[in-house]
Structure formats: structure tokens, C-alpha cells
Design a protein that fits this description.
The chain is of the alpha+beta class. The chain has 2 domains: 37 residues, no CATH class; 146 residues, 2-Layer Sandwich (GTP Cyclohydrolase I, domain 2). It is built from 8 helices and 8 strands. Strands 6-2-3-7-8 form a 5-stranded mixed β-sheet, sandwiched between helices. Strands 1-5-4 form a 3-stranded antiparallel β-sheet, with no helix packed on it.
């Protein structure tokens, strides 16, 4: 993945600040383009990691014995994985949390369980891109549906859409988006998974 061009970003922020009519003689303001460029690079850091690599690592962990002996239908929920993202419409940050329910594939009397850390990393990588809440839920479902040990996925993303509160109509509120795949598209199973996420 390409690395960001910090000098070009700094120059662009200088142009933006000048176009706003600000002068940069203030010592604090003089460093603003540098700080803004680094902040933008951090908020877009997800582009430097390929989600397919995370899926490969999860699948490798599953091949190495991430199966657990247990009974039940294999519904697992991980709630409130926090993230910060960058609104692709306004280039303003927004934050929220993703909750993920998945149905683990059963092999004999074992279930394939995913590492919470891998799920959190996936949320962070896909979140640290130019995003919309609705698309983040869909991106997470699409990537997790590729994991061998998952029969179905339900993702709920909840964000505080602050960019709309600071510009235009002054809307403030939460956006909740939900996407599903595989066995969790079945209304009965999805209903039980949704209860786990509440």
C-alpha cells in the first residue's frame, strides 16, 4: 500500500488555510498544516492495510486450532467495538461503535470461534478510511463473510454523525446501520442475533 505524501499534504493545508483568509505568522498556526496532515494520515491509515490479510490470518488461526468444544447453535456476539472514521462527504471525523454477531460453523462437536482482537482490528482498519456509516456495516459484512469459519454475519454500526451537526441544517443524532449475510439473513436466526447485540 502506498505511503502518504506528508509534504504535499502540508502544502495543501497551507493553501486551504490561506484560502480561508488566515495568515500564518502565528507560531502555533505555522505548525497547523503539519499537524493537520499527520492527523489526516492517521484518520486514513486503514488504506495501508489490506482487509484480506486479516481474513487470511483469521483463517490461519482457525486452521491452527481455534475450534472449541461446546454445545449450542454457535451464535456469538461482540459488542461496542469503538472506531473513529472520516466522513467521505465532508472529510470530518466521526466516531461510533460496531457490534458483530456471527454464527460459527460447526464441525462435529466443535465450533470455530474468532478472536475478538481480529474483529477489533478489522473494524479499525475499515473504519480508518473515507467512510459512511452505512457503508462501513456493509464492508464489515462483506469481509467477514469470506472467513471460512463463519456461516453468517450480522453487523450493526452506530455513529454520532457530528459533521451534519456542525454544518448546514445543524442535524444532531445517531445513525444506526445494520447488514447481514449467510445464515443470519434468516429472520429467526437474525432475530436472536439482534437480541445479542442489544
Amino acid at each position: 500500500m502506498p505511503t502518504p505524501d506528508l509534504p504535499r499534504l502540508q502544502a495543501a493545508y497551507t493553501v486551504i488555510l490561506n484560502a480561508l483568509g488566515t495568515e500564518l505568522p502565528d507560531l502555533v498556526l505555522q505548525r497547523t498544516p503539519e499537524r493537520a496532515a499527520r492527523a489526516l494520515c492517521d484518520l486514513a491509515a486503514g488504506y495501508r492495510t489490506d482487509p484480506a490479510q486479516i481474513v487470511q490470518r483469521i483463517d490461519q488461526d482457525l486452521d491452527d486450532g481455534a475450534q472449541r468444544s461446546c454445545s449450542g447453535d454457535g451464535l456469538v456476539a461482540v459488542r461496542s467495538l469503538g472506531f473513529v472514521s472520516l466522513c467521505r462527504d465532508h472529510l470530518l471525523p466521526f466516531s461510533g461503535c460496531a457490534s458483530i454477531a456471527y454464527q460459527a460453523r460447526r464441525a462435529a462437536d466443535s465450533l470455530t470461534l474468532l478472536e475478538v482482537g481480529s474483529l477489533a482490528e478489522l473494524v479499525r482498519v475499515l473504519g480508518r478510511r473515507l467512510q459512511l456509516p452505512e457503508l462501513l456495516a456493509l464492508d464489515l459484512v462483506r469481509v467477514l463473510a469470506q472467513v471460512q469459519g463463519v456461516a453468517g454475519v450480522l453487523v450493526r454500526v452506530r455513529v454520532e454523525q457530528v459533521c451534519l451537526g456542525h454544518i448546514g441544517a445543524g442535524y444532531r443524532g445517531a445513525i444506526v446501520s445494520e447488514e447481514a449475510s449467510g445464515t443470519l439473513r434468516d429472520i429467526g436466526v437474525a432475530g436472536r442475533a439482534q437480541k445479542l447485540l442489544d
